[in-house]
Amino acid sequence: MTDKTNLKHFFHPATNRTVMIPIDHGTLLPVPGLEDTGALIEELKPYCDGFIVNLGVARAFQKELTGKGVVLRTDTGNTCVENSNADGSFRIYGIDEAKAVGAHALMNMTFPGHPREMANLIDCADLIAECLNEPHPIMLESLPYGLGKSWDYSPEKIHFSIRLGCELGADVVKTAYPGDKEAFARAVDEAYVPVVILGGAASSDPEGLLRDVADAISVGAAGIAIGRNVWQSPDPVKMAKALHAIVHENAGADEAVKLLS
């Protein structure tokens, strides 16, 4: 594999793990919690290694993002607008745009089982091929069938989604934690690139989220990419501190929960 030197912007050398905060939701749905994006970035910077952003945020908040890894989302999909005619993920940006805004990495959705699976996989493969000789790593957010269909995130389907991302050539795979430590451990052991877990929609059970993160880290996850469960939580800084403690300080779930109070 080509040396993806930009991985150093995301994976802490002491732990070889990462805390990423996605704030890339604004092309798809209303985003309460991102009203003052620049201030939020500054507030969370001490407790994360990088941010996942759309092109507009990467351009508008370069000063605030300085010093952190920046992942450019290269695709978009169905918006919340009624009668949206989008159908799943489709790629809109690539390496030229990433370089133009100073992004260190790129990320695209991968939806195995989606009706537009073939077009989606071609988008991902083209992006990876485009960046083979670049220092920019590619993260594939690989989820069975469709974004947010958590009932479809069985251990078996998550396992395949991780493997698919690896086989396509991703440098990092982002996926859901299926709630089964043993099954997830097997999937991560089989993967030959780092696997990070997402958070999904804001949860009414923050303690449960922290326990899932701790479980995933304990069986080999290389970190997290959690957005709404941070910046839509009652106290985003406390949640970011708690997640950072689990990922980079080996805190247990009970210890991390105390940081929320």
Domain unit count: 1
- Give the name of the CATH architecture: Alpha-Beta Barrel
- Which regions contain 5 or more consecutive residues with pLDDT less than 50? none
Structural class: alpha/beta
Report the strand count. 10
Multimeric organization: single chain
Shape designation = globular
Q: What value does the average pLDDT take?
A: 94
According to CATH, the fold-level topology is TIM Barrel
How can the largest sheet be summarized? 8 strands, parallel, barrel
Following the backbone from N to C, one meets helices and strands in this order, namely: EHEHHEEEHEHEHEHEHEHHH
What percent of residues are in strands?
15-25%
Rg, Cα atoms, Å: 17 Å
The CATH H-level superfamily is Aldolase class I
Distance between the termini: 44 Å
Trace the largest sheet across and list its strands. 1-2-3-6-7-8-9-10
How many helices? The count is 11
Percent of residues in helices: 25-40%
CATH class value = Alpha Beta
